Amino acid sequence: MNPVDFQAIAPELILIVAGCVLVLADAFVPRWRGTFGALTAAAAMIAVAARWMGPLPGAVFSDALNIDALARFVDSYVLLAVILVAVLAGPYLTRTGAQVGEFYALLLWAAVGAMVLGSSDHLLTVFVGLELLSICLYVLNAFHRGSLVSLEAGFKYLVVGAFASALLLFGIALVFGATGSFLLPSAGGALAARPVFGDPVLLAGLALIVAGASFKLAVVPFHAWAPDVYQGSPTPVTAFLSVVPKGVMLVLLARVVVHLAPHAATTHWVSLIAILAVLSQTLGNLVAIAQQDIKRMLAYSGIAHMGYALVGLAAYRPGAPAGGEGLTGVLVYLAAYTVMNVAAFAVVSAFSEGEEEQHLIADLAGQGWQRPVLAAVLAIAMFSLAGIPPTVGFIAKFMVFRAAVGQGLTWLAVIGVLNSFISAFFYLRVVFLLYMKPLPKRPPAFTDPWPTRLAAGACAFAVLAFGILPSWLVTAAETAARVFGR
Amino acid sequence: MLDHALLSAIIFTPGAVALALVFTPRRAETLSRVAGLLASLVTLALALLAWSRFDGANPDFQLVEVRTWLPTLGITYRLGVDGIALVLVLLTAFLQPLVFIATWSTIHDKVKGYITAMLLLESGILGAFLATDLFLFYIFWEVMLIPMYLIIGVWGGERRIYAAVKFVLFTLSGSVLMLVAILVLGWHLHGVTGTWSFAYEDFLHSPLPLGSGFWGNPQLLAFAAFALAFAIKVPVFPLHTWLPDAHVEAPTGGSIVLAGVLLKLGTFGLLRFGKPLFPTAWEQATPLFIALAVIGVVYGSLVAWAQRDIKKLVAYSSVAHMGFIVLGLFAGGVAATQGALLQMINHGLSTGALFMLVGVIYDRRHTRLIEDFGGLAKVMPLYTGAFMIATLSAIGLPGLNGFVGEFLILTGSWSTHPVAVAIAASGVVLGAIYMLSLVEKVFWNALTNPDNAHLADMTPREILAFAPLAVMMVWIGVHPATFLALSEAAVRRIIGG
Fold first, then answer.
1. Does the CB of A197 have a partner CB in chain B at under 8 Å?
2. What is the distance between the alpha carbons of residues B208 and B464, in angstroms, rounded to a whole number?
3. Cβ contacts of A410 on chain B, cutoff 8 Å
4. Range B97-101, long-range pairs (CB < 8 A, 24+ positions)
5. pLDDT tens for residues B239-258?
6. Do A414 and B177 touch (CB under 8 A)?
């Protein structure tokens, strides 16, 4: 353990300390509460800056963490989500009477958990990161203590989350039993030296890890919790929940695929991931069509989007150059999904009169001409989620489908684009309501405070900017994906 | 200097003005209208400048612009214009100012949004004609969807929502598979050359491999994906069902652009990508497309004949006219292909004019049913004259533009597909029947409906919007060589003749 190790985890340390400061400030100087959102965003920005300016030494703390280009990519989008959610949460929490330091502290600590989970090859560190992330989220989901739906969301996420953690932990134990190592590269090395094709213990371990991760990703058939939790959680938390845990879990899954799959069950692996991808896309999109509540619709849309992202993972082949086209696609997909989904939730957080109310899609009628900025952001987010250029959503789909076609999985790409076609139906319905329906007789009393517009506008800008000039994002993802191939 | 950015300037002038309009006050309606008109006039001027710089004898892409865009994937921002693209760009740039003039005061609601959507649509269309990178082409192809969806859905008629959703879903269902086909092409080229590129010209020399049957034949499958996207846009029978709804429900300006230019993207796509990229599959699919084209000609004409709504009649006549164009494209040969290209322009002019004129009468009477009219020639002589010119152009009267295009297509296809030509020629007769009977019922019969007794004739603004179309109809009818000469070299390169 040397000073370089601590320098490498400076961003994590900054966030942990900032979280503690916020909790203390809440207790001792409660009149500062109005600035907590800004402080949280500032802490996250400093952490991002520290990550980009600091060293990338690779493995630190005896291989417990890998601070490399991949970690930088993952941290960047986790913290981007934190910044956006912190900005959004200010007016939202003030309106719902929950403007307290713990919220922001939990948000920052959850981010640390996600960053640790995303940047480790060591399965035990992964588990610790996951638990930190999950426990913070259990509390955040139920943050509206007075609201039954919020409590229900927190409880559901707790039960399902604990179950998923248990599956994952059991899977880790079995993989350790089969390979003798918690470290994914050396576990893979052990397998390479001693071929164990079809070893039931290893296969069971892999299957359990995939199942545990699938719960967190909310891919079919492990998705049932998502709509209720999305609907009940405070909207800024839903925004965080919909992008961060899913993103880092995909990275973990990618690590497992890269290190273990070449030596155990490669072909089965492809079909397993492909089946999950197809089921998630199809079921998510079809059920989303029937939703009346926009948060539930976005939950099903999220299920479908993880299906698209999995296509990139299914298209991974060992030995492919640059860590595989598919892994690049997955990373681009995560970044794209973050900005477009947070954009959507930012607008949803403004378009609700109270947290007890349902967030009916029908309430959006006529808002396009009433609140042009937020409506335009929501429309852009919908087009991006539907994968219509020139948005980043299209670039992301292009990347994963490109990888699939390159690996002879053209059928998977065809199913993917047909699903995009289905999804256009419900995404465009939102646009239709915004612009083509008249305002109702009694227009809903929505508020659109400037921080919400700022966060939403920034997301929409990113959606279009990365959609029109994707070069920087793609290059960053390629650099990060190359780490996998190490 | 200008030459190196001229095509970009043509594409992005409307789009840039549209973006600037977003930041203007909502109430400044006249400002939006003037800005829209000026933007489209500047675009037209730039297109004419490109024409003056264009060398018709050179079959290659000219005024080429290449910029790096996504270098690791071999995707470039690559523009170029050949004779085929040039005439269509000229048509697009020519029609847009007329659309703004024709609908100057007919859109009252959300004027700024309407002008913005129209300009974005124009940018998308021009981009699709000028892109010479498949990825870039696909982006522009899809970008057009959103403004058109809004134009139909926000400013359209009673059943606008249904029409807008149907339009989007039809178009999208075709184009998503084209994306997969583009990816397949990209990987194939990577396999052949070892480098990444989506540049159109790089694909010309390495067609996809052939296989057996349909599912085992990569070239045929990829062609099917492209052809489906284009056939829906054209639209080729039986994929045409979105068209009458979209045309009828769209506001007049939307109908003009839709019929005048948007449909041409389908036939342009077939011409640009069909034979050059998929030579064998093109040959294999020819009988199918010839048959569908001929069916479209006859079916479209018959259904148009049966319509009671003038706008719907014109919409179905589009199905028939586009059938002619598809026939010319697949019949092969320089004459038929040139005729098809010229007919794309002609259809843009004549159908654009007809939709514009239907808009004129709709603004006055708020009905488009044929039975509500009769004897209009007595009260609206100018309007009657204008409608006659457009009708005669549409049915191919010698001396006007439509004749030249149809004649070239039919004579050019005769040697290879005599039966198809014989059946399609009946479409010419049917076209004359339904259009002239429309004219008779609306303009010549007795003026029985008192509502029609005091209709105002065309205003100077409406005449200003129509007159350039009439001039072009005569120009092409008398001296088609102006435009045929532009595209001949490029067509020869594609046909290989």
1. no
2. 50
3. 180, 184
4. B97/B37, B97/B40, B97/B41, B97/B44, B98/B256, B98/B352, B98/B356, B98/B465, B98/B466, B98/B468, B98/B469, B99/B40, B99/B253, B99/B256, B99/B257, B100/B33, B100/B36, B100/B37, B100/B40, B100/B253, B101/B37, B101/B461, B101/B464, B101/B465
5. 888 998 888 888 988 999 99
6. yes
Q: Measured on CA atoms in the order A247, A250, A422, A238, is the torsion positive or negative?
A: negative
pLDDT along chain A (486 residues), means of 10: 78 92 88 86 92 84 85 92 90 77 91 92 92 91 81 88 92 88 83 71 86 89 88 88 92 86 66 90 93 91 93 79 75 93 90 70 82 90 92 92 87 92 90 85 77 90 92 90 74
Q: Shortest CB distance from B71 goes to which of A413, A418, A471?
A: A471
pLDDT of B464: 92
> How far is C-alpha A426 from the chain's CA centre?
21
> Which pLDDT tens digit goes with each residue over B111-123?
888 999 999 999 9
H/E stretch holding B32: helix B29-53
**Amino acid at site B414:** W
- pLDDT tens per residue across span A54-85: 888 888 888 888 888 889 999 999 999 999 99
Distance of alpha carbon A341 from alpha carbon A461, whole angstroms: 13
What does the pLDDT read at residue A451?
A: 86
Respond yes or no on whether the N-terminal peptide bond of residue A221 is cis (omega within 30° of 0).
yes
pLDDT given at position A357: 66
Rounded to whole angstroms, what are the CA distances from A73 to A81, A254, A265? 13, 14, 29
Which site among B172, B196, B215, B228 would you substitute to test the A interface, given the most A Cβ atoms closer than 10 Å to its Cβ?
Answer: B172
Contact B146 A405 (CB under 8 A): no
Query: Do A421 and B139 lie within an 8 Å CB cutoff?
Result: no
Report whether A454 contacts A91 (CB < 8 A). no
B153 CB neighbours in chain A (<8 A) are 432, 435-436
Quote the crossing angle between the two packed helices A450-468 and A372-386, to the nearest 10°. 40
Domain boundaries, chain A: 276-486
Nearest to B70 among A383, A414, A474 (CB): A474
- β-pairing verdict for B62-70 and A58-60: unpaired
DSSP B199: B
| B169 to A425: CB separation less than 8 angstroms, yes or no | yes
Closest residue in A to B154 (Cα) is: A436
Q: Which residues of A touch B71 (CB under 8 A)?
A: 471
Is any Cβ of chain B less than 8 angstroms from the Cβ of A435?
A: yes
Q: Which SS3 state, helix, strand or coil, does residue B309 take? A: strand
Q: Which residues 72-91 of A are in CB contact (within 8 Å) with B?
A: none
Contacts of B33 (CB under 8 A, 6+ apart): B100, B104, B111, B115
* Smallest Cα distance from A170 to chain B, Å: 40
User: pLDDT averaged over chain B?
Assistant: 89
Cα distance between residue A41 and residue A33, in whole Å: 14
pTM (two decimals): 0.93
